[in-house]
Amino acid sequence: MNATAIKKIDKSKNKGLTKNKKELLKKHMGSASSKIDMNDVRHWWKYENH
């Protein structure tokens, strides 16, 4: 079998997250404004949905 060369990803164009983007990401992470208990949904789906 021939060994294949792994192609490296060019990261020189990517600058990463800016301060504004980091703040926006922090603000919206885990901010699901839903009053649904996912454990109840899972229980219903697993046991009562048949």
Can you describe this structure?
This protein has 50 residues and is mainly alpha-helical. The chain has two helices and no strands. It has helices at residues 19-28, 38-48. The radius of gyration is 22 Å and the shape is flat. The relative contact order is 0.07. The mean pLDDT is 79.
Largest sheet, if any? none
Strand content: under 5%
- Distance N to C terminus: 50 Å
Q: What structural class do helix, strand and pairing data support?
A: mainly alpha
**Low-confidence spans: pLDDT under 50, at least 5 residues?**
none
Total helical segments: 2
- What is the H/E string? HH
- What gyration radius follows from the Cα positions, in whole Å? 22 Å
Number of strands: 0
Integer average pLDDT:
79
Q: Percent range for helical residues?
A: 40-55%
Name the overall outline: flat
Blueprint (SSEs and pairs):
Blueprint: H1 19-28, H2 38-48
List keywords for this structure.
50 residues; flat; mainly alpha
Short description:
Helix content is 42%, strand content 0%. It has helices at residues 19-28, 38-48.
